[in-house]
Amino acid sequence: xxxxxxxxxxxxxxxxxxxxxxxxxxxxxxxxxxxxxxxxxxxxxxxxxxxxxxxxxxxxxxxxxxxxxxxxxxxxxxxxxxxxxxxxxxxxxxxxxxxxxxxxxxxxxxxxxxxxxxxxxxxxxxxxxxxxxxxxxxxxxxxxxxxxxxxxxxxxxxxxxxxxxxxxxxxxxxxxxxxxxxxxxxxxxxxxxxxxxxxxxxxxxxxxxxxxxxxxxxxxxxxxxxxxxxxxxxxxxxxxxxxxxxxxxxxxxx
Length: 254
Hints:
Layout: E1 10-14, H1 19-27, E2 31-34, H2 57-68, E3 73-77, H3 84-96, E4 101-104, H4 123-132, E5 151-155, E6 171-174, H5 176-182, H6 188-192, E7 200-205, H7 210-221, E8 224-229, H8 235-247
Parallel strand pairs: 1-2, 1-3, 3-4, 5-6, 5-7, 7-8
Helix pairs in contact: 2-3
């Protein structure tokens, strides 16, 4: 456990460390960098000497960020709220970096709610708000009002947010991203939740273990598209989403 006063001024996080850790970092005004998100303009192939290409683009992005950002420590969730591969990435980071790497297990159960996931808002903005929220232990003020869903996105935050631009503002979020907003990343029952009444894209990063769950739930849904993508969302993936939404009668704003 960190003391309320400590020498760290700039730390990196991978996944969602427990809320207690984030709360203490916030109290000490430590700068938090979400290493899961692209933060530097650098070729992802720089991760190749450290991780095989069959690791998902998110974890390879973690390594690229760690190579370029000055950090005092790294906190990485290696519990059920992240993935087994994160445990091995922690070992790689420990040998790569000259700073401490703390393995954590986030099994928090106190839900914060999911108002952003159910609001009327551009899907890119929703994901930006939810992913930014991992750096704060505070409950958001003035949560947005819910809207009636016309489509849904189930899954993890994609590395390339441009794939989200194809969805209407009335898209609800499910899957691990919804768990992120609720600050309960290991809540498997919440992750399994979906709405069978609206067309849903079930998404995971290529090579992520969640591709199995995404495909399984898509088969159960009845009106769904299963999709995975690697580093960037290529034209083929975007065309599949666009065709799926159009054939489902979903009106995309604008």
